[in-house]
Amino acid sequence: MIDIYSWATPNGHKVHIMLEELALPYTVHAVDIGAGDQFKPEFLAISPNNKIPAIVDHDGPGGQPIALFESGTILIYLAEKTGKFLPADPAQRYATLQWLMFQMGGLGPMLGQAHHFRIYAPEQIEYAVNRYTNEARRLYGVMEKQLGKHPYLAGDDYTIADIAAFPWTRSWKNQGIDLDSFPNVSAWQQRINARPAVQRGVEVLVSARKALTNDKAREVLFGATQYAQR
């Protein structure tokens, strides 16, 4: 059994989708990041960076429990545990891992910044909006070129690279993206969104999520609370 501590965000949905794709038994524990659940000692014990998601696999290596944080690491772990969605062939494996790192190091952080400065920032800062919107478009362009050559990011097969990237592209409107300008990305999204496991995964914890409409939640996520030493 796997315990997943998560919330309905792109990073959370990566692991929700992976667990659904693998049909692994799991129990989901809501970590309400707007209420500050991510700062509770019991969560920090398994995710010291106070970020979701995190998992505890009670049947880890050698049959012993293992706790993991960082969504990319969790995807690699689950892929290696089951032998799925991460090719064994070295060339294909590294092709997958490089596109996973593309998401972890670029796509996620930059789309997150575009989303923040366009939607959540208390004041509109033109320089920030332009910088991150332009970078979002550049990254979509990188995917567009790759997906013009292959049906999936790492090649002909659906892998953890696609599982990682897909949730971040679901909010393309909020990132200032015109998806009609990226037809290959749009077709890739449709292919992935048609998968039943993906449809189940993106619904996990959605009913618990609340809109960020109150000052307390915004302060928890974006204010001094976020930066306190713990």
Could you characterize what this model shows?
The protein has helices at residues 10-22, 41-44, 71-82, 90-120, 126-147, 160-169, 183-193, 196-201, 215-222, 224-227; strands at residues 2-6, 26-30, 54-57, 66-69. Strands 2-1-3-4 form a four-stranded mixed sheet, with helices on one face. It is an alpha+beta fold. The radius of gyration is 18 Å and the shape is globular. The chain folds into two domains: 2-84 and 202-226, Glutaredoxin (3-Layer(aba) Sandwich); 90-194, Glutathione S-transferase Yfyf (Class Pi), Chain A, domain 2 (Up-down Bundle), CATH 1.20.1050. InterPro entries: Glutathione-S-Trfase_C-like, Glutathione-S-Trfase_C_sf, Glutathione_S-Trfase, Glutathione_S-Trfase_N, GST_C, Thioredoxin-like_sf.
The SSE string, one letter per element, is EHEHEEHHHHHHHH
**What is the approximate shape?**
globular
- CATH top level class name of the largest domain: Alpha Beta
Q: How many domain units?
A: 2
The percent range for helix content is 40-55%
Number of strands: 4
Proportion of β residues? 5-15%
Q: What about the largest sheet?
A: 4 strands, mixed
Class inferred from helices and paired strands? alpha+beta
Q: At the fourth CATH level, what is the homologous superfamily of the largest domain?
A: Glutaredoxin
- The separation of the N and C termini measures 30 Å
Strand order of the largest sheet: 2-1-3-4
In the CATH scheme, what's the topology name of the largest domain?
Glutaredoxin
CATH architecture of the largest domain: 3-Layer(aba) Sandwich
Show unreliable segments.
Answer: none
From the alpha carbons, calculate the radius of gyration and give it in angstroms. 18 Å
The overall average pLDDT, rounded, is 95
Our count of helices gives 10
